[in-house]
Amino acid sequence: MWLAGRRLHAALGGQRLVRGELRHPRLSAVHLAGLVVSEVVSVGKHLLTRFDDGRSLHTHFRMDGAWHLYSPGRRWRGPDHQVRAVLAVPGRVAVGFRLYDMAMLPTAEEHRIVGHLGPDLLATGWGPEAAAEAVRRLVARPDRELGLALLDQTVLAGVGNLYRNEVCFLLGASPWAPVRDVDAAKAVRLSRELLARNAERPEQSTTGALGPGAQHWVFERGGRPCRRCATTVHTATQAPPGDPVRQRITYYCPTCQPGPHPPC
User: Fold this and answer.
1) What is the pTM of this model?
2) How many CA atoms, within 13 angstroms, populate the side-chain half-sphere of residue 68?
């Protein structure tokens, strides 16, 4: 999301829209053409496109959303029925696909959308205070499963399923281990380091390698040998109690990540 925000800002920031369409049931009557894009910023997994009239467009990718950038007249890489937003300036066209979560709101009221989030791991102003707050939020529920806590955007803003799997592996902890059993400060530090390492590129490598099949320790390696010990990497699902909608596939090495695991 951070990279998407940076690219959108570079393409649109400071320029007047020659086309601005929102193809969303609640926003279909909103017309943005003529407004100047003040800036595009990311906050965790949220994007905020701010305009010179004091309003902001909020978008969220969920699992499969995306913003594409094109030169005018170039064919879009996706079906028209999946387009939810078109923002065009002279020389560039930004097209938002599968953006289920969209809202227009006053820029001064963005806290209604992102105010509940934990410290943003890729925030420019990240420092000791933000790190300490992230640790405080992480340990606030010591009995919570680590894998669920890392995905909670009110604890840490920015960690998705890929990174929570990889952070658990690098900590040597089961995703089902309670937070109290891990070094919370190290968990926060690893989360930020991995996100920062990949912030400026589309490839998301946690191993340091960029070759096909070599980028991750356990993520999407179910049934294959662990890179460290050759034990077969296992998969299972993990979800907050009573909330199957937020269920995520979890990858782990039972040898390198001792602790509680679901039955095989």
Assistant:
1) 0.86
2) 18
